[in-house]
Design brief:
The complex is a heterodimer of chains A (230) and B (576). Chain A has 230 residues and is an alpha/beta fold. Chain A contains 8 helices and 10 strands. Chain A has a 6-stranded mixed β-sheet with strand order 6-7-8-3-9-10, with helices on both faces. The two termini of chain A are 33 Å apart. Chain B is mainly alpha-helical. Chain B has helices at 19-37, 40-64, 72-102, 111-116, 124-157, 162-189, 193-214, 220-228, 239-254, 261-279, 283-293, 312-316, 322-328, 335-344, 349-370, 376-391, 393-400, 402-406, 412-442, 446-473, 481-485, 487-520, 525-569. The chains are: A alpha/beta (230), B mainly alpha (576).
């Protein structure tokens, strides 16, 4: 459930860099993402896409520079309230059903009237029949769908998604694209790291990374996507 | 579809947004699920096994420690130096806590909690305090149990009421882990980093070292150690040693919210894998993951570089012609020997220190065994076994990559045996460290050097063989259907597989015990040690031979089984 926010810049990175000893994961970069934008992050494996998303989500600390989300430092309570992060590997409790996951996440994020949205999302992702099942017994694709559901059911103004199409069947991919459209239409900013052409063609902006540095920032139409994505 | 149609007792429209209530509800829901999944027969069987183990351990300890009371002179020495030595051990626990804090902290938070709870807009102190307290509960229990048992053992040889020794021992054990845990939480919660954490750890150890060297009682850990010895003498000032760990723990729980998620997530993944590997009894995987957990990486630059097989100038110079290169090429022999040393010379300082420390612990425990505390012979053997698990790293690397070994024109047993050569040299050095530590506390007594010289090589090789067995064996294979049906058979097989290597390592140091008993009965120590040493030497040879021939033996055995099966498959009577 996207929530309306006042700042026009949802994500702002200044001199953001991340290193692990001698290894440079992200070169110092500046990035500004306005409200409501649909941005796609591309780059070959190890280019720094996931690192950038994880720093913005507050899971990683930058080595230098700063990131702010809706004007608050990444990782702060305000930023956590605004960011919904969907990692490439779904992480779920082994001993909670899908429905219990939904309830728990909604309560943690103080979501109002989540029950009706839960029904809609369960239906859209074809999980209604499995709502009382434990995700630990699910296939990779069903776990991915559960994680997507949990990422979308809570309030957010910035959605960060890392390789969301991996493991999904064609109907699942179509449903996800539609859900991302809905989120974006409701005013949320959506940043997706992907190799999937389906979403790249729908994005307003493409940022390409190579070895931790931005090598392209512009409209997707102006880029040779195959080369940029490696 | 209305939500009511999705039957779930957890869903209730009227709920609280209070983080504490939410987290409590989550725990309740998960507990319900776990209880629903619980197999009562399995739980009862576990309780039965635990009961047997605890009973056997209690019987062993109570029987093994019924040794002689110490003399008046020894008691005077303990009164003077005991607190400082014990303080050093507690300082080590505090140092481990500081180091753990510098590397992200001691908290093991579930990956799902990191993703869902810690990324939610709630106070992280509230979210992390619960897991911290649950972890603390277990640590306190472990610390108090260890301290209580140590108190019980102490009572066997020192004067004072048993209840007092057990009580102060248990309290000291609990306070020591509480202080270490608190320090770890403070360093991780305040994000002081590994250098500050490591520096503080050295300071804590150095302070206790000064107390030990100067016969003073200034460090809080020395005061805490002296509190443990209250059955001998009570000093009011020792209360400071009790208050400090409690204060550290309280401060740690207050600042726990500052723990970095990066570290929590990394630990969550690794600890989950370690637990899984432990349930499979996969010791090697546990060791590798534990090294990852403590960020123990091989050094980029070796401590000492062996002469290169390809001179560096060849790699940097593009103008040198190939023929000229060949003319200067030195042929290197013993590739497996060199490969072993290439790896060992890249060991991080921490691993070298750990192995040396384990050698020293073995030496000190054998001194204590010699002086009358018999059970410490077990600790000495286990210390050498743990050192051997590190020392057999070249072999373990080979076992971890079996496809590489298959490409060599060499039986894998032969290759594994050759891999043990550098490890054997290193293991003897570990034994020498033990002798030096023993000599340090015995004032360089002649007996120490004599017994040490006789014991060191067989004991080191026994431990090496034991470590190599654990590495080569790997996790146990699945049980046959018949064996799985009988829990005692399965349990005995698992215990035998797990316990034999450490037992073999302990047997390697038993000659010290035999020599002590000879002295107690008025015989010379050295001939007794030498006579029993033959058994240890045979064990060492057995371990090494097992590494060389175990694969051939398994293959032979399987062939025999297959032949037998084919034999029974034939009709027993000729067809008419």
């Amino acid at each position: 459930m996207p929530q309306s926010t006042k700042p026009t810049t949802v994500l702002s990175a200044r001199g953001l860099a991340k290193t692990y000893g001698d290894l440079v994961a992200l070169e110092p970069l500046d990035l500004s993402v306005p409200e409501g934008q649909r941005l796609v992050l591309v780059g070959h494996n190890g280019s720094g896409k996931t690192t950038l998303l994880r720093i913005a989500a507050g899971l990683l600390e930058p080595s230098s520079g700063e990131v702010s989300i809706v004007g608050a430092p990444a990782g702060s309570i305000e930023a956590r309230s605004a960011v919904s992060y969907l990692p490439d590997n779904p992480v779920l409790y082994d001993d909670l059903s899908v429905l219990e996951h939904i309830e728990y996440v909604c309560r943690l994020h103080e979501a109002d009237e989540w029950q009706s949205r839960a029904v809609g999302l369960l239906d859209a992702l074809a999980l209604t029949e499995r709502a009382d099942d434990l995700p630990s017994r699910f296939s990779r694709g069903l776990r991915q769908k559960t994680a997507i559901l949990l990422g979308l059911i809570r309030p957010f103004s910035l959605l960060l998604i890392d390789e969301p199409f991996v493991g999904l069947d064609p109907p699942g991919r179509a449903a996800l694209v539609e859900l991302l459209d809905d989120a974006n239409d409701s005013g949320a900013t959506v940043i997706v790291a992907t190799h999937q052409m389906d979403f790249v063609s729908r994005a307003e902006r493409c940022v390409a990374l190579r070895d931790g540095a931005v090598i392209f920032d512009g409209e997707p139409g102006g880029a040779d996507f195959t080369t940029l994505a490696g | 579809m209305p939500l009511a149609g999705l039957a779930s007792p957890a869903v209730d429209a009227a709920f609280s947004f209070e983080p504490k209530v939410i987290l409590k509800d989550l725990r309740s829901a998960r507990r319900r699920q776990r209880i629903a999944d619980l197999d009562p027969f399995e739980a009862l069987y576990r309780a039965y096994l635990t009961g047997i183990t605890v009973t056997l351990a209690a019987l062993f300890l109570s029987g093994a420690t019924g040794d002689t009371k110490i003399t008046g002179a020894q008691l005077a020495t303990i009164r003077m130096h005991g607190a400082a030595w014990l303080g050093m051990a507690i300082a080590l626990i505090f140092a481990v806590g500081l180091r753990s804090g510098g590397r992200g902290g001691p908290l093991v938070v579930e990956a799902a909690d990191v993703r869902h709870v810690l990324l939610a807009p709630i106070d992280r102190s509230v979210a992390l305090r619960g897991p911290a307290i649950r972890q603390l509960r277990f640590l306190l229990l472990a610390g108090a149990s260890t301290g209580g048992i140590a108190g019980l053992l102490t009572r066997q040889r020192l004067p004072g009421p048993a209840i007092a020794w057990v009580a102060t021992g248990a309290a000291t054990g609990a306070l020591a882990v509480a202080g270490g845990f608190g320090l770890a939480l403070i360093v991780s919660g305040r994000r002081l980093g590994r250098w500050v954490g490591g520096g503080l750890a050295i300071l804590v150890l150095a302070w206790s070292g000064v107390d030990l060297a100067e016969h003073t009682t200034t460090s809080p850990v020395t005061l805490l150690a002296r509190f443990a010895m209250w059955p001998l003498a009570v000093h009011a000032v020792d209360v400071i040693g009790v208050v400090v760990p409690v204060a550290l723990l309280v401060v740690g729980l207050v600042v726990v919210g500052g723990t970095m998620l990066e570290a929590s997530e990394r630990r969550a993944g690794l600890v989950g894998q370690i637990r899984f590997a432990a349930t499979l009894q996969d010791l090697r995987t546990v060791i590798v993951l534990r090294r990852q957990l403590s960020q123990e990486q091989p050094r980029q630059r070796p401590w000492l570089r062996l002469r290169r097989a390809i001179p560096m100038s060849w790699l940097t110079s593009s103008s040198a012609d190939g023929d000229g290169k060949k003319a200067r090429l030195h042929v290197r022999h013993f590739p497996v020997w060199r490969r072993g040393w290439h790896g060992i010379l890249r060991w991080p300082a921490l691993r070298l220190l750990r192995v040396a420390l384990l050698g020293a612990v073995a030496g000190l425990c054998l001194v204590a065994t010699w002086n009358g505390t018999t059970p410490l012979v077990v600790v000495a053997g286990l210390a050498l076994y743990l050192a051997a698990l590190d020392v057999t790293e070249p072999l373990a690397q080979e076992v971890d990559h079996p496809d590489r070994a298959l490409s060599f024109d060499l039986p894998s047993g032969e290759l594994h045996l050759r891999q043990l050569a550098p490890s054997a040299v290193l293991m003897v050095f570990v034994g020498v460290v033990g002798i030096l530590a023993a000599a340090a506390v015995t004032g360089g007594a002649t007996t120490t050097w004599e017994i040490g010289a006789v014991v060191v090589v067989p004991a080191a090789l026994c431990a090496l063989g034991a470590g190599a067995m654990s590495v080569v064996k790997g996790p146990p294979p699945p049980l046959s259907a018949q064996a799985a049906l009988i829990p005692e058979v399965a349990g005995a097989r698992a215990v035998g597989r797990l316990l034999w290597p450490p037992i073999m390592s302990i047997l390697g140091v038993v000659p010290v015990l035999v020599a002590r008993n000879a002295v107690q009965h008025g015989h010379a120590a050295l001939p007794a040690a030498v006579s029993i040493e033959q058994v240890a030497a045979i064990l060492a040879v057995f371990g090494v031979a097992w590494v060389r021939y175990q694969e051939d033996l398994h293959k032979w055995w399987q062939d025999q089984i297959a032949d037998a099966k084919m034999g029974t498959g034939r009709p027993t009577k000729p067809a008419l």
